[in-house]
Amino acid sequence: MPLRFKIHLLICSAFTISWGVAGPDYKKDIKPIFEKRCVECHSTKMKKPKGGYKFDDDASIKNEIGPSFLIRPGDPGNSDLMGMVTRANKDHPMPPDKADALSAREIKILSEWIKQGALMESNATASSSALPPRPANTVQEWTNKEGKVIKAVFVKLHGEKVTLKMANKNFEIPLQSLSEESQKLAMKTAGELAVKAP
Ligand code: HEC
30, 53, 69, 81: which to mutate for ligand 1, most atoms within 8 A of CB? Predict the structure, then answer.
């Protein structure tokens, strides 16, 4: 069975949890999982955190978020982190000891957080497609995978799609069609807007 499918099955069989419209919050829902399940072996307090990963350091975690990193925003099925915690990744199940495996609920929370963009800023007031978009009104340059550059205003990031505004018209495009740098810019801008929200 392909890895992605297996993870999908696991996530579907987990019971449903409700977060209202906002989805899991990094500080409230995600950090406690890392602290409880990972920090024992992956801490800034250690001389040699296992594999060099530090799950009690926001800056280090942030470095693991990106289209080709451990945590792929909008794409839990292809995020290595999910393969590790679901133990579908046989080489690096995390935590290594099966007795410490994450619960279905913890897996579901991590997966949902990644699906909604893996934002590290509080999302209580942002990132929900139910909320009206709040344009930052700053024109930025965006490059797609083919190297074509456009100038547009970021509107919102929702799942694997990003909405940009050009000439007062909204365009919805797959995040994956942007260059890596522009994908990062979209995530960064989404995070900044989340912080600035009233
Ligand atoms: C009991 C100790 C322990 C715990 C708890 C633990 N890990 Fe690990 N982790 C290790 C060890 C040892 C390695 C290095 C060997 C390996 O890669 O299997 C490692 C390696 C890793 C790597 C690098 C894998 C690679 O590709 O080289 C990642 C990522 C990781 N852990 C994530 C996590 C996450 C996320 C958690 C919590 C859900 C976690 N670990 C919990 C011991 C632990």
Answer: 53
Tokens describing residue 147: 């190297």
Which CATH code for domain 139-196?
2.30.30.700
- Which backbone phi and psi does 2 adopt, to 5 degrees? -65, 145
Ranges of CATH 2.30.30.700 domains, the chain: 139-196
DSSP 43: -
Q: In the Cβ-directed half-sphere of 173, how many Cα atoms lie within 13 Å? A: 22
* Cα gap 59→81, rounded to integer Å: 17
Q: What share of the chain is helix, strand, coil (3-state, %, to 5)?
A: 40, 15, 45
Residues with CB under 6 A from ligand 1: 37-38, 40-42, 50-51, 53, 55, 70, 81, 84-85, 92, 94-96
Q: What is the pLDDT of residues 90-105, one digit of tens each?
A: 999 999 999 999 999 9
Distance 148 CA to ligand 1 centre (A): 39
**Residue 70's CB: how many other CB atoms inside 10 A?**
16
Instruction: Convert the pLDDT of each residue in 144-189 to its tens digit.
Output: 988 888 888 888 888 889 988 877 778 889 999 999 999 999 988 8
